[in-house]
Amino acid sequence: MPHATTRSPTERLSRPAQVAQALKDWVVEQELRPGDRLPGEAELMARFGMSKGTIREATRLLEAQGLIKTRTGPGGGSFVHEVSRQRAKALLGNYFYFKDLGIDDLYGLRLALEPELAASLAGQLSEEVLARLEATIAEYDAPSASLDEERKQHVNSLRFHAILAEHSANPLLGFIIDFMVSLLSDLTVYRRLYAPPNAELWSKGRDYQIRLVMALRAGDSGAARAIMRAHMRTAWALMRRQEAEIEKGFISEAGES
Fold first, then answer.
1. How confident is the model at residue 250 (pLDDT cuts 50, 70, 90)?
2. Are 182 and 86 in contact (CB under 8 A)?
3. Average pLDDT over residues 210-227
4. CB-hemisphere CA count at 13 Å for 41?
């Protein structure tokens, strides 16, 4: 059997990285599925023409990426592993860690994508999922009475959108929206965008979500799209104001020091 080849000699990857990429290509070519066993070290050495050390480092790279799971003991070995959504979001989140994303970055994309997601889900969600959405809204059925409660309400209101993303028929669209929701939730917490409490943001956001569930239950895709679009535009404006307030506070504190 001929040795597998790397994608391009100009990529200047290390030998273990080249083998890791070639092994991923081979898994796709062989149509292996999560849980399928990979060949042993000796066979991989012969297939890729590399030393045992290079093969072991390549499999460690793939294990770190979550694409391989290694088990020891009887029946052990290396197996194809499916990366979970949570792990994928965490890995991708690391890339954006130092990108200094802001409200405009996230809401610009949310405004483009979430109305289409809402329209696609109209009439497609089970009563159980609709009940989950309503139960989520019920968790912030009154204005917050403390800053800690305000933080929790922000996070819970974003979970409403994560539930919608979870049920997208398009896995890529669902993942992107779910990832944005996670980024926004983290951004809200570590930049304290929930302070000071914003009753207008709570009231309007909750109203839009209630109306959206009604449109989804009725199967009205046009109304679902329009409601989500208005929801995103309003939230964008109000969250931008929150961001500006926080930045103004930082500037004031810096001037006083």
1. very low
2. no
3. 98
4. 13
Please give the Cα distance from 188 to 8 (Å, whole number): 42
Contact between 212 and 224 (Cβ < 8 Å) = yes
Q: Which amino acid is at 220?
A: D
SS3 string of the chain?
CCCCCCCCHHHCCCHHHHHHHHHHHHHHHCCCCCCCECCCHHHHHHHHCCCHHHHHHHHHHHHHCCCEEEECCCCCEEEECCCCHHHHHHHHHHHCCCCCCCHHHHHHHHHHHHHHHHHHHCCCCCHHHHHHHHHHHHCCCCCCCCHHHHHHHHHHHHHHHHHHHHCCCCHHHHHHHHHHHHHHHHHHHHCCCCCCCCHHHHHHHHHHHHHHHHHHHHCCHHHHHHHHHHHHHHHHHHHHHHHHHHHHHHHHHHHHC
pLDDT band for 249, please (50, 70, 90 cuts). Answer: low
88: which 2 tokens? 């994928």
Q: Are 223 and 216 in contact (CB under 8 A)?
A: no
| Of residues 98, 95, 13, the one with CA closest to residue 61 | 13
Which residue's entry shows tokens 């307030």?
Answer: 245
Residue whose structure tokens are 């930045």:
247
Contact predicate 204/237, CB 8 Å: no
Q: Which conformational region is residue 80 in: left (phi greater than 0), alpha (psi within -120 to 50 degrees), or beta?
A: beta
59-100 confidence digits (pLDDT tens): 999 998 888 888 887 878 889 988 888 888 888 888 887 888
Tell me how far apart the alpha carbons of residues 218 and 169 are, in angstroms, rounded to a whole number.
Answer: 19
Burial class (CB in 10 A: 0-12, 13-18, 19+), 106: middle
